[in-house]
């Protein structure tokens, strides 16, 4: 399994960075996904854009295909745990889903003391904070250490161009953002998904360190939407070298976009100012990690189409219009 690095290098100039299929519905452009919305359905085109520190910083070859197909894998694998929005996958980069009314909260589960962003639990802990999203943290913990139990650390969804804000169960209920009943039901669903994600990852030689879930309502039922347990929304590490690297105080081997975040941060970019141009070598290495995550999680080889991604997606969506 794996993919030819030369093909990845060639595809750096062929990535899907934007779409225009307004005949399908009202267009909503996210950081990574272009959505076309009708009353009942949403057509999601997962582009190859990569977002770090809440900013689009470039593209990675085949990234959209990895995310879309991995989300479909997880939606199917966890269908018995929670209802999700997926209807069909007519193209490797496209999903047709039920149109949900999203809750204004992202449900972030953290199993390890890690992260590099301004809202990360390790960032807060390193500066001395011992209360995080309503959870008390003991002294004496180290970076990448496993927490005694996974913590739900919700964030509010910020408007486009701004940053999500850390919050807590108590604050969300006090501010009337969510009722106690809805929060607890959604938290219970997210907790079961994270437990299953960790269990499955462990069986595949991986650690699911943290992830986030987006939950909405479809005909009154809480429904998992957007993506689930992908390398964009999650941190994945290798199990076999975790303890050795942790004991040495070194960084974990990453299978997610933290690799790109780290590269950008080392050049002084953490969300503000001029974005460093990501070299093709870095883009290829990041793409290899995404594809490796796909193959480890699914147990299947990552298959690419010989058709150019832009033309292939256009043909698939034209058939749906």
Fold and architecture overview:
The structure is a single chain. The protein is α+β, with helices and mostly antiparallel strands. It has a single domain, classed as 2-Layer Sandwich (D-amino Acid Aminotransferase, Chain A, domain 1). 32% of the residues lie in helices and 26% in strands. The chain is built from 9 helices and 16 strands. The strands form 4 sheets. Strands 8, 11, 12, 13, 14, 15 and 16 form a 7-stranded antiparallel sheet that branches. The two termini are 35 Å apart. 41% of the residues are buried. The model has no long low-confidence stretch (mean pLDDT 94).
At CATH's second level, what is the architecture? 2-Layer Sandwich
In the residues, how many domains can be counted?
1
For the record, the CATH class is Alpha Beta
Question: Level of helix content?
Answer: 25-40%
Order of helices and strands: HEEEEEHEEEHEEEEEHHEEEHHHH
**Mean pLDDT level:** 94
Continuous helix count: 9
